[in-house]
Amino acid sequence: MKIGELDLGPRPVMLAPMEDVTDRSFRLICREQGADMVYTEFVSADALIRNINSTTRKLTINDAERPVAIQIYGRDVDSMVEAARIVEEAKPDILDINFGCPVKKVAGKGAGAGMLRDIPKLLQITAAVVKAVKLPVTVKTRLGWDCNNLIITQLAEQLQDVGIAALTVHGRTRSQMYTGQANWEMIARIKENPRLKIPLIGNGDITSGEKARDAFDCYGVDGVMVGRAAIGAPWIFREMHRCVNNSVDTNPITQSEMFSLIRRQINESIDSIDEYRGILHIRRHLAASPLFKGIPNFRETRIAMLRADTRDELMQIICRVENEILPALSVQQSKNQNNIAL
Question: Which of 177, 270, 325, 340 would you label with 78, given CA atoms 20 to 30 Å apart?
Answer without folding.
Answer: 177
